[in-house]
Amino acid sequence: MGPTGTHARRLIAATLLVIGFTACFAVADAVAADLPSGPGVIATEIGKEPGAREVVVGTYIENIQGLDLATNSFMADLYVWMRWQGADLAPYQSLEVMNPYETWALVGTPLTEEPVPQPDGSFYYAIRYQGAFNTALQLAQFPFGEQNLQVQLEDQRSEADQLTYVLDTNPIAIDPQVTVPGYDIGQPSITVEDIHYSSSFGDLTNRENDIYSRVTITVPVTHPFLATSVKVLLPILLVVATASLIFHVPPGLIEARIGLGITALLTLVAMQWSALSDLPDGGYLVMLDVLYIISFLFVLTTLIQTLATSWKARTGGEASAIRADERMMYIDLSAYIGLSALVMWLYLR
């Protein structure tokens, strides 16, 4: 075939490529026209149950009376409001507090007898909850670390495909005068999530693996670092510093050296009991436990070394015993400070 046939084949191939690219762009434009115009629309649709009726929720935290570490509970006073469309819906009747500490002491007081119609056609209802709430406290970093005080609300009848909660425009606020003794209050938050139950609870009419919409109100609180350090850690350091004075007592005064070490040891035991008496009996060591254990080992080590150097001094080597005391004092203090810093870094990182 001559040059004319070759040019014809090239022209046909180029024409097909142009037609193919044009068709691809046309299909892409058609698909893009059918997609949502912005990412906000996509985010709204993700996880939304089709046909579920929406209930707008919000809360105002009036007061937090106290936090009990031993029982993993706290006292709170808060308002919860709801708005919804449709006079046939009454979500306030089936709203349930999921984490009450003492059910008999939890009081829910409606602010109105009936739902209040709103200008947009919705209905408004508010409840004031007062009582104790159970919350899972993370105490491994005690006396530091953040604790999340939570109140969890859920509809006890309707599943997520029937009723779902959505957050109001300004869904949460806290009274600026609220204080929790011994803690700094962080920024509160409120979230809505679907909770999966892997049981039908024995109801033959229900399907298993039910999913319910849950509202979680969270208030983070933390111990002030400087004040807590002065109140809890400084006394330990003072006792350890006192115990280190054993090495400055002449080796011949063995009774005084032993008495100083025993006094430091008993003081640490009393301080540990007092500092940890408010904590629940757990199956793990909190940071303060480990710091006390290191302090016990330091005092025990000084007692063993003072016995050794005292016996050495009695055999005629008092000058060498004094030098050994000075050397061991620096070694023990360096090891104690290094281990304590390592423990705090491992727990607080």
Automatic annotation (TrEMBL):
GO terms for cellular component: plasma membrane. The keyword Transport applies. Signal peptide: none annotated. It is found in: Cell membrane; Membrane. SUPFAM superfamilies: Neurotransmitter-gated ion-channel transmembrane pore, Nicotinic receptor ligand binding domain-like. The chain crosses the membrane at residues 225-246, 258-276, 282-308, 329-348. InterPro entries: GABAA/Glycine_rcpt, Neur_chan_lig-bd_sf, Neur_channel, Neuro-gated_channel_TM_sf, Neuro_actylchol_rec. Keywords: Cell membrane, Ion channel, Ion transport, Membrane, Transmembrane, Transmembrane helix, Transport. One of its GO terms (molecular function) is extracellular ligand-gated monoatomic ion channel activity. It is a multi-pass membrane protein. This is Unannotated protein. It comes from freshwater metagenome. The lineage of its organism: unclassified sequences, metagenomes, ecological metagenomes.
